């Protein structure tokens, strides 16, 4: 995630795809993302990819980190 300290413009939203099931993120990760000015959304990877594509198509500055959909933990 440290790459977002140097990427400009900073994405308005980071979408994390957690595999097949949504998983809670470490609070330190959430705090780090918030500290650099991004919003964070965690969903299953299929919905994360769809959300990223829609927002990107709208011209919004977004980023995504996706685990393979078959991952369950």
Automatic annotation (TrEMBL):
GO biological process, one term: mitochondrial respiratory chain complex I assembly
Cross-referenced InterPro entries: MTH938-like_sf, NDUFAF3/AAMDC
One Gene Ontology cellular component: mitochondrial inner membrane
Top-rank lineage group of the source organism: Eukaryota
Pfam families: DUF498
Name by which UniProt lists this protein: NADH dehydrogenase [ubiquinone] 1 alpha subcomplex assembly factor 3
Organism: Eutrema salsugineum (Saltwater cress)
């Amino acid at each position: 995630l440290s790459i977002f300290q140097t990427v400009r413009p900073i994405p308005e939203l980071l979408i994390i795809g957690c595999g097949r099931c949504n998983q809670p993120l470490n609070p330190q990760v959430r705090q780090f993302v918030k500290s650099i000015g991004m919003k964070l959304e965690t969903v299953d990877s299929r919905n994360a990819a769809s959300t990223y594509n829609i927002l990107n198509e709208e011209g919004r500055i977004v980023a995504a980190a996706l685990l393979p959909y078959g991952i369950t933990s």
